[in-house]
Amino acid sequence: MTEASHHTFTETDCPEGCPGCARQRMTTGQCLAEKLGFAQKTLAPWQPALAAPETAPEQRQWEYRNKVCLSAIHDGRVWRIGLKRRDAVIAVGRCRIHSAGVRKAMALFAGILPPAPSFPLVFYVQSNAQITLVIKSARIPDMEWLTDDVKNRLQNMGIEGLWLCLHPSAGHRVFAKNGWRLVWGRPRSMDTRGLVYGPTTFGQPIVELAEASLDRAEHFLNPVSGDQVMDLYCGIGAGLARWKKKTAPVTGVELSGESVACARQNAPGATVLRGMCRLRLPQLTAALEPKAPRCLVYANPPRTGMEPEVTQWLADTCRPEKMACLSCNAVTLKRDLTLLENKGYKIERLIPFDFFPNTRHLEILALLHRV
Ligand SMILES: C[S@@+](CC[C@H](N)C(=O)[O-])C[C@H]1O[C@@H](n2cnc3c(N)ncnc32)[C@H](O)[C@@H]1O
Fold first, then answer.
1. Does 279 contact ligand 1 (Cβ within 6 A)?
2. H or E element: which one contains 82?
3. Whose CA is nearest to atom 4 of ligand 1?
4. For residue 4, is pLDDT > 50?
5. pTM of the model as a whole
6. Which residues are catalytic?
């Protein structure tokens, strides 16, 4: 069943003041034009390299968000799950950006969870088939609501794992390091590409577009047998699995322990180092293979961009022949490209990818080669 047949959206579905998407202000096309304009302005020094944006097919531009981290508040009457604005929570139960699966699961929990304070829910986190309820308490709360009927309903919705994260100081940080309990189902799931992921691992919502960006990166890097590939900020190893099919040695670096465990499973034979990239530079330097015909780098950092020490290391020590950098922030990308250009890299192509249609987010794949 498509979502359109499940619920027909109307203008009134958007709560007033919701900052989640641009729907209340502009069309999908206007929204893309606005963010492209910002990217063009920010990346003006490389304007001739900027390509046309790659977008998802029209039917995937809404209801694609299957990974959420939302605030939860009990207003004395009902649970409200949504975006936090000052002390209020703007419920997103009817939002057109969120997938039908997420909306249905949120509605189920909002209807069955006991009220606060007996169930001190503060965050509702869903990563596709894995759901985490973050509880502001060190103790397991009342779980009588988790009946066989609820488990069956979750299963029928395609949910595979339900977690509690006991986090007495939840607030600025969503997750606690410890205090994780799998209360139903299994701890990991598999995405449509056959990659294993968990409740906290990173994942792009429109998998087809994420794969299209990796296709572009792979086509440019063109790793062949014997080339060395380094994949920085590698997540669950979507890139690593590709590079590993083409060549060895392949090395990834990733901060999240859960992502590292998944990456090792998804890309057997690749070396995956755990920790911040900047703190793994000594190991990366030791892993550099002088006999490899070429060194190639793929990097997909968070919004803060590559750590300055890492960019410096790439430019001075590693000096790969080619680099493909997927960035979700044009401002930090500009900073990183400027340094690399000053160190003798040519920015060959900048390809925008609209991974989050109708929101202000835009990803840009930068393709660079050593001059
Ligand atoms: C934008 S995601 C990219 C993940 C992966 N390339 C993918 O497409 O699935 C950034 C990843 O970097 C990780 N990360 C954040 N800061 C890091 C750091 N300083 N060093 C290493 N990894 C980091 C995050 O846990 C996340 O998995």
1. no
2. strand 79-85
3. 235
4. no
5. 0.94
6. 328
Residue 197 CB–ligand 1 contact under 6 Å: no
Q: CA-to-CA distance for 125 and 69, rounded, in angstroms?
A: 4
* Placement of tokens 């605030």 in the chain: 71
Instruction: Return the pLDDT at 2.
Output: 37
Please count the residues of the chain.
371
Are 130 and 69 in contact by the 8 Å Cβ rule? The answer is no
- Greatest CA separation for the chain: 67
Domains and CATH numbers, the chain: 65-197 (2.40.50.1070), 207-370 (3.40.50.150)
Enter the tokens of residue 227.
């080339």
Higher pLDDT, 251 or 7: 251
ipTM of the complex as predicted: 0.98
Alpha helices of the chain — where are they, by DSSP H? 3-6, 28-42, 100-112, 148-156, 207-221, 238-246, 257-266, 281-287, 308-313, 330-342
Q: Residues annotated in the binding site for S-adenosyl-L-methionine, as ranges?
A: 204, 233, 254, 300
Q: pLDDT tens, 69-116?
A: 999 999 899 999 998 887 788 888 788 899 999 999 999 999 999 999
Residue 236 Cβ contacting ligand 1 at under 6 Å: yes
Indicate the average pLDDT of the chain: 93
| pLDDT for res 1 | 33
* 115: its two tokens: 């009220």
Q: Tell me the best of 192, 200, 202, 314 to mutate to test the pocket of ligand 1, counting ligand atoms within 8 Å of each CB and taking the most.
A: 202
User: What distance in Å separates the CA atoms of residue 330 and residue 353, rounded to the nearest whole number?
Assistant: 12
Query: Is the CB–ligand 1 distance for residue 231 below 6 Å?
Result: no
Q: Crossing angle for the helix pair 207-221 and 238-246, nearest 10 degrees? A: 40
Candidate ranges 6-15, 155-164, 169-178; pick with highest mean pLDDT: 155-164
Joined together, the tokens standing for residue 207 give 């998998």
Question: How far does residue 315's CA lie from ligand 1's centre (Å)?
Answer: 20
CA nearest ligand 1 atom 6, residue: 234
- Section 226-232 average pLDDT: 98
